[in-house]
Fold this sequence. Notes:
Distance between the termini: 82 Å
Largest sheet: 5 strands, parallel
Low-confidence stretches: 85-89, 98-122
Number of strands: 9
Strand order of the largest sheet: 6-7-8-5-9
Bound molecules: adenosine-5'-triphosphate
CATH topology of the largest domain: Rossmann fold
Shape: elongated
Strand content: 5-15%
Radius of gyration: 33 Å
Number of domains: 4
Helix content: 55-70%
Oligomer: single chain
CATH architecture of the largest domain: 3-Layer(aba) Sandwich
CATH superfamily of the largest domain: P-loop containing nucleotide triphosphate hydrolases
Structural class: alpha/beta
Amino acid sequence: MKVNSANDLWHRCLRVIRDNVSETTFSTWFLPIVPLNYENNVFTVQVPSQFFYEYIEETFVDLLRMTIHREIGEGTRLMYRVLVDRTSGTSTTIPSDDKLKPNQLYNAPKQENPFARKEVIPNIDPQLNPIYNFNTFVEGTSNKLARTAGISIGNNPGTTIFNPLFVYGQSGVGKTHLVHAIGIQAKQTHPDKRVLYVSANLFQIQYTDAVRNNTVNDFLNFYQSIDVLILDDIHEFAGKNGTQNTFFHIFNHLHQNGKQLILTSDRSPMVLQGLEQRLITRFKWGLSAEISKPDFELRKGILKHKIFKDGLDIDDEVVNYIAENVTDNIRDLEGVIISLLAYSTLTDKPIDLELAHKAVSNVVNVTPKVVTIEQIRNVVCEHFGLKIEEMLSKRRNRELAQARQIAMYLAKCHTKHSLSSIGEMIGKRDHATVLHACKVVNDLMEIDKQYRACIQEIQNKIKA
Ligand SMILES: Nc1ncnc2c1ncn2[C@@H]1O[C@H](COP(=O)(O)OP(=O)(O)OP(=O)(O)O)[C@@H](O)[C@H]1O
């Protein structure tokens, strides 16, 4: 049959297809298809790109098969001619097969295009920040899992079970730092690998440009040539269907070819909104690791690390104060250190609690934690290994008496209760006993360093 007949047949098919898809889908995905030939039960059409071919096969293969069988005849096979290079008109021919996997597709005859040349020159700028490495990333309970998996990936990209690695958590908890560190490690252990960090925002901009300039094929080929792809803030793809669709094909291609994918998001894949289900399903294939809010120990560790790195000299008391009050965000902790440094240099004052208070109150709302007598009783009992009933009893051995005195002193310092109500709640004692207890504790703190440290430790636990 001649091309003309193929044309007629295709026009009949288009009429059926038009009734089954939206107008936009029709003009985007079906009008660009060019009927070429119908011979020996094989209907050959030309499609503009490999991506186009994949999309058609993935999304419309059933509709196409049904339509072609109806309009052309049962047993007709569909053959695609994929246009590889628009300027030279080079193409490759691929049969329609819904079982054809993308990795098989990419084993198709080698194509001559600009990116084939690029593959021989493996080095691209990975866009990694050298400061964000594993040496500067402090480990804590909130990031242990993600960090451990990250090190493993850095050493063996693409070959661990953590593929993709999906790191999620609130803003400022260290997601970007960690994924850069993985990229740096991967590059160090495998210098020939093509590692690339890209933010979701930049990826989106590049994709939009590619659509505008009619270079989506090049865009796809480039991303499909990466060995370790790090995509930051994937939640920003929400509602961007074209970008998601393109990323879906890149993801499939890389994953099926044993390449490493590392993604970050502000929430877990389970609660990601505005993203296609087929993408979310893929995000769950590897490891989803949360980086939660840093605990006190990690906050302190990071502060000490930064202080040491900046060559500063800051008292533990000041470090504890900052770590106690700046709780949510590591970026804020860094901000406080920078402010302290600036204040101290400009005013020529030492970095003390007063200065720290100023710097911290610029970053967070410092509202003192409300402490109750019950909490104080619990913490003191736990510290000395006593039962609450023992503290509230009439028994007077030395250990119990000391614990009661400390609890009374702390209740006086940290609550607004009167002396008599403190006495009432700590063993039904009168206000004179509480007054005496406060004096004893104060006096002992003045002369006994160890005792003072013990009270400080209990206070820290109360405020934690
Ligand atoms: N464990 C850590 N050790 C040392 N520095 C850290 C750690 N976690 C985070 N930081 C530092 O905190 C700052 C904020 O971290 P990062 O940008 O990685 O957060 P994020 O979770 O990606 O935030 P966002 O979602 O807002 O992009 C960075 O300067 C980073 O170096």
